[in-house]
């Protein structure tokens, strides 16, 4: 088989004149979008709190008077997500991707009800914790479910659709925030309606199958073959079943239980986890959720004091985030994961420096909004324009691809936990750091971290474009033990 690239597509495979493209199989797209509602919940939760926080401060004086309490309301969802992601890997491996999704929906709906009815900030924080648990499990499950139901040629684009749902959820949250600004109980509606998409996903997921790879490896080969038959034509189906049979036999030969310590004991798994977890950490430490959680607050720091205007400008930022992710879906299978991440980080570095300079210069002026305030808003927009197509989807896509079958749920959960821990650190520290060191210096620190991220990707992250799961496993073995010549040899073997 020979992989060929055709303009205007996400990636194609020439197999008996049957070409696989992003839109060629409505069944796969349906699985992707229903699973991707988990990403929508992720995005809505991260975006909605940025606007709701403005009105929570108005209702509860103790919140308005405490940056720490504001950060806790924002970051408690991240504590829950951290716990949910850590447990999510085990839930995925033991119960399957489908049951993991259903359980996440139930917890998310419960958390939304608690938030909407919260009589004080502390019950609100409890609701945020519950919502975070659901988001954490979903953040592990959705990309793995999509990846395991995707042909390798378009896997990057399909997994990136989950990231599009995240950014779409963030955009939706800003629309909801604007819609409820003049309605009594403003922030309660903003937070409470988050349960609606979770309930919709729960109902739709009841009618979808389990991941075919999980079924084959853990439960029922005939059921797995029936699902795969809806994804591949007969020629490709036989090849996929052969690969699964080989993978299953390798698992049986190992004859040992997989433990978390094995991730660090086995060199090839350790290298894969280091690359995957590092990408997740740098995604957060380069500041994306600083922007998404606090963008209205950042806009107000730049001199735009109106709540409504701050939300409107933040809505534009969120729209650019969603549109940038659509660009990423196209580029990730054409351009490759590594090149896309490096290009993205280059723009992020420049944008963060622009933001830093704008805030440093703005702090020396006073009065109404000036040129520096507008430069800060432009810097935010440029940051999103560069981040969204690359460092938005690449970490999630790479982490859905690089781990062997027996470690995929475990390592996926561990790397997602790293993402949420990093997210928590950023969310819990941004306002305090901005108060202590200044907003401009804070963005300068993020720019320095982005430079470190660029070096990390260049050195430690391999290109995974177009490789099967089995080929990816061989790549890590070769990196660990020096056998073979790497990806080029694999691609030659496939030609």
List the helices and strands and how they pair.
Elements: E1 2-4, E2 12-14, H1 26-35, H2 37-59, H3 61-64, H4 67-95, H5 97-117, H6 121-148, H7 155-179, H8 186-192, H9 195-205, H10 212-219, H11 221-229, H12 234-254, H13 260-265, H14 267-285, H15 288-301, H16 307-334, H17 337-362, H18 371-387, H19 394-401, H20 405-437, H21 439-460, H22 469-481, H23 487-494
Antiparallel strand pairs: 1-2
Helix pairs in contact: 1-6, 1-7, 2-4, 2-6, 2-7, 2-8, 2-15, 4-5, 4-6, 4-20, 5-6, 5-8, 5-9, 6-7, 6-19, 6-20, 7-16, 7-19, 10-11, 14-19, 14-20, 14-21, 14-22, 15-16, 15-18, 16-18, 17-18, 17-21, 20-21
Question: Key terms for this structure?
Answer:
single chain; 495 residues; mainly alpha; two-stranded antiparallel ribbon; 2 strands; 79% helix
What structural category do the secondary elements indicate?
mainly alpha
Based on CA atoms alone, the radius of gyration comes out at: 22 Å
Put simply, the count of helices is 23
Per the principal axes of the C-alpha atoms, what is the gross shape?
globular
Helix content: over 70%
The low-pLDDT segments are 1-17, 488-495
Biggest sheet descriptor: 2 strands, antiparallel
Strand fraction? under 5%
Please give the number of β-strands: 2
Order of helices and strands: EEHHHHHHHHHHHHHHHHHHHHHHH
User: How far apart are the first and last residues' alpha carbons, in Å?
Assistant: 5 Å
On the 0 to 100 scale, the average pLDDT is 81
Strand order of the largest sheet: 1-2
């Amino acid at each position: 088989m020979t992989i060929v690239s055709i303009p205007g597509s996400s990636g194609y495979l020439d197999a008996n004149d049957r070409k696989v493209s992003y839109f060629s199989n409505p069944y796969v797209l349906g699985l992707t979008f229903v699973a991707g509602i988990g990403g929508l919940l992720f995005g809505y939760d991260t975006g909605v709190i940025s606007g709701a926080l403005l009105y929570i401060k108005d209702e509860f004086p103790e919140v308005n008077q405490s940056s720490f309490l504001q950060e806790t309301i924002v970051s408690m969802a991240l504590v829950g997500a951290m716990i949910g992601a850590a447990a999510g890997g085990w839930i995925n491996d033991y119960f399957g991707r489908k049951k993991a999704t259903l359980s996440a929906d139930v917890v998310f709906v419960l958390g939304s009800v608690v938030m909407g009815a919260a009589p004080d900030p502390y019950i609100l924080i409890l609701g945020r914790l519950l919502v975070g648990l659901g988001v954490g499990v979903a953040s592990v499950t959705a990309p793995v479910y999509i990846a395991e139901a995707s042909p390798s040629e378009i896997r990057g684009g399909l997994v990136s659709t989950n990231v599009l749902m995240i950014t779409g959820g963030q955009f939706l949250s800003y629309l909801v925030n604007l819609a409820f600004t003049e309605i009594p109980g403003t922030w309660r509606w903003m937070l409470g309606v988050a349960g609606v998409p979770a309930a919709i996903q729960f109902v739709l997921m009841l009618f979808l199958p389990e991941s075919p790879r999980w079924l084959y490896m853990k439960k029922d080969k005939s059921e797995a073959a029936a699902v795969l038959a809806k994804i591949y034509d007969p020629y490709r189906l036989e090849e996929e079943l052969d690969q699964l049979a080989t993978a299953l036999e390798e698992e049986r030969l190992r004859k040992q239980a997989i433990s978390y310590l094995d991730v660090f004991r086995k060199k090839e798994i350790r290298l894969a986890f280091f690359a995957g977890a590092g990408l997740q950490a740098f995604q957060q430490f380069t500041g994306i959720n600083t922007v998404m959680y606090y963008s209205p607050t950042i806009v107000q720091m730049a001199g735009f004091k109106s709540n409504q205007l701050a939300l409107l400008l933040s809505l534009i930022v969120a729209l650019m985030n969603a549109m940038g992710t659509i660009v990423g879906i196209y580029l990730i299978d054409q351009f490759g994961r590594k090149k896309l991440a490096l290009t993205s980080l280059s723009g992020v570095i420049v944008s963060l420096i622009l933001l830093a300079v704008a805030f440093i210069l703005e702090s020396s002026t006073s009065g109404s909004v000036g040129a520096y305030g507008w430069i800060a808003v432009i810097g935010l927009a440029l940051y999103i324009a560069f981040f969204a197509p690359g460092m938005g989807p690449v970490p999630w896509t790479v982490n859905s691809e690089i781990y062997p079958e027996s470690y995929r749920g475990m390592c996926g959960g561990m790397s997602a936990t790293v993402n949420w821990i990093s997210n928590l650190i950023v969310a819990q520290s941004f306002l305090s750091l901005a108060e202590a060191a200044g907003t401009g210096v804070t963005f300068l620190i993020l720019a320095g971290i982005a430079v470190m991220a660029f070096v990390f990707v260049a050195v430690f992250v391999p290109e995974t474009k177009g490789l099967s799961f089995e080929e990816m496993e061989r790549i890590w073995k070769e990196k660990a033990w020096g056998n073979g010549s790497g990806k080029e040899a694999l691609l030659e073997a496939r030609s």
